[in-house]
Write a structure and sequence with these properties.
about 200 residues, Immunoglobulin-like, seven-stranded antiparallel sheet, 13 strands, about 35% strand
């Protein structure tokens, strides 16, 4: 007989129902997304770029993967350190969207949303949210040296725009990036949505 055979069993506990996550909250946890073949420069200048690298498409929305990079010019060491620090784009309050990287989307019907750290749950009932909602999900890492700085960020867009093109808009005043835009075409998003897989479907 093993030493562990006569240990008492843990008492069974009731199974707790899991709350249903609203679509605007974030990507579904049980889906392998389709990858949309879109991407390009949201802003491009001689020293700075903001790039939409890829779009992961889910049944309810899409995850935008952005990259921003700055090449060093003739800045002093102190000036370059300040640029690197700004490029981290540290999380800020959802009420303080006009600092750091400003990112927004414009739907063809006139609706728009600006990226914030928190979703709309703090301001309205979850079932009353109509969208669009653009939520900051955090960065994916970065790097910097004496010649350049580069970081990434991920943003959740809900609902998924699959009937008309959507415009992605950025501005970063502290880095001298003016308001710039990129058209996100709906056809590749719809095609990618058809390729997503649910974890548990037979």
């Amino acid at each position: 007989m093993s030493f562990f055979d006569d240990l008492p069993e843990q008492p069974a506990r009731p199974r707790q129902p899991q709350p249903v996550q609203p679509g605007w909250y974030g990507p579904p946890s049980d889906e392998l997304p389709g990858i949309a073949r879109v991407g390009g420069f949201v802003h491009k200048s001689a020293r700075m770029v903001v790039v939409l690298k890829l779009v992961e498409v889910y049944s309810t929305g899409c995850l935008l993967d952005l990259v921003w990079s700055v090449r060093r010019g003739n800045e002093s060491d102190q000036e370059w350190r300040e640029i690197v620090e700004e490029s981290y784009n540290h999380p800020r309050s959802s009420l303080d969207t006009r600092t750091g990287l400003e990112l927004g989307v414009a739907f063809p019907d006139g609706r728009k949303a600006v990226a914030a750290i928190h979703g709309p749950s703090s301001f309205q009932e979850p079932d009353d949210v109509t969208g669009p909602v653009l939520t900051t999900l955090g960065g994916g890492g970065g790097s910097n040296n004496d010649g350049y700085v580069q970081f990434t960020g991920r943003y959740w867009l809900w609902p998924l725009p699959v009937e008309e093109d959507t415009t992605l808009v950025v501005r970063w005043q502290a880095l001298g990036i003016p308001e710039s835009s990129f058209v996100l075409p709906w056809e590749p998003l719809a095609e990618a949505q058809g390729r997503l897989l649910n974890y548990w479907n037979e």
